[in-house]
Amino acid sequence: MSFPQASKSNYALITGASQGIGEAMARKLAAAGYNLILVARREEVLTRIADELAGTHGVDVEVFAADLSKARDVDALIEHIARREISICVNSAGIASFGPFMEQDWEYETNQFNLNAAAVFRITKAVLDQMVPRGSGALCNVGSAAGNSPIPNNATYVFTKAGVNTFTESLHYELKPTGVHCTLLAPGPVREAEIDEDEQSFIDRLVPDVLWTTYESCAADTLRAMRRNKRRVVPGPLSKAMDVVSTYAPRGSLAPLLGSFYAKMGEEQHG
Q1: What is d(CA 263, CA 271) in angstroms, rounded to the nearest whole number?
Q2: What pTM value is reported for the model?
Q3: What is the rounded CA–CA span in Å between residue 223 and residue 207?
Q4: Is 60 exceeded by the pLDDT of residue 39?
Q5: Fewer CB within 10 A of the terminal residue: the chain, N end or C end?
Q6: Distance from C-alpha of 92 to C-alpha of 142, rounded to nearest angstrom
Q7: Percent of the chain clearing pLDDT 90 (strictly above)
Q8: Which secondary structure element, helix H or strand E, spans residue 90, and what is its range?
């Protein structure tokens, strides 16, 4: 089955749509003529993006403000999309923490698991309940190249992303006979094309600009991969290098190196 075409009746559902990869995907899909359902916590930001995209591209854009780390908000979203024809779904919402697991705020870690893993799991099932009987649809879950290997000082994040990676790639093969496209986006570091010097993080300062993947280019690569029903897309040179190293390097040597790097990120996050 071919990639679903935009129509007046169907929608692309995008979580984490207020910024980053989610916002970039929303912009690409609106430009291609798809109606949108934008999901994130910040309603005012979503409304601004929705008004812009609707005005520029003449598509219908719905705003659904929700904190998907909360089961009740996931329940409400699933109830809402049951009344819509969802042709495309991009599960992009996610958060991360850095530093020793036992020193993290437990509420934040629990929310991270619920958002990065449980919400993805439930929303995936909800959209596939529509797509599979139709024999048409496209699903993209955002995992991470970080999910390929153990990373001390990033334990909860890699736990969730390793699950999203393998879950989505497994579904890719299961769904092939149904006509539903299923693609894993497994990026490394992604950011805006330009960042003010006083807003740069430790990793922004460490990695040369030429190696970064922008949100816009990441979204373009992802949409191309979804159209071709690729199993996995890893956008940009730095992400590709991370993907290869984390997959094939000896874990006993790699994990301590990554752990020391992520410890510095933890110091900056909590500093």
Answers
A1: 12
A2: 0.90
A3: 26
A4: yes
A5: C
A6: 5
A7: 75
A8: strand 85-91
Helix, coil or strand: residue 116: helix
Partners of 63 in beta bridges:
38
Question: In the chain, where are the structural domains located?
Answer: 10-270
Phi, psi torsion values for 125, nearest 5 degrees = -60, -40
Q: What is the dihedral of CA 235, 180, 67, 223, to 10 degrees?
A: 30
Q: Is 157 a catalytic residue?
A: yes
| Catalytic residue (one of 11, 34, 157, 262) | 157
**Helix segments in 114-154, DSSP class H:** 119-134
CATH class of 10-270: alpha beta
What is the sign, positive or negative, of the torsion defined by CA atoms of 171, 174, 178, 184? positive
Give the model's pLDDT for residue 88.
98
User: What tokens does 8 get?
Assistant: 């007046």
231-269 pLDDT tens trace = 999 998 877 877 888 788 787 877 877 777 677 766 666
Cα 116 from chain centroid (whole Å): 9
Specify the pairing of strand 137-142 against strand 180-185: parallel
pLDDT tens for residues 194-204?
545 554 454 54
**How many CA atoms within 13 Å lie on the side-chain side of 87?**
18
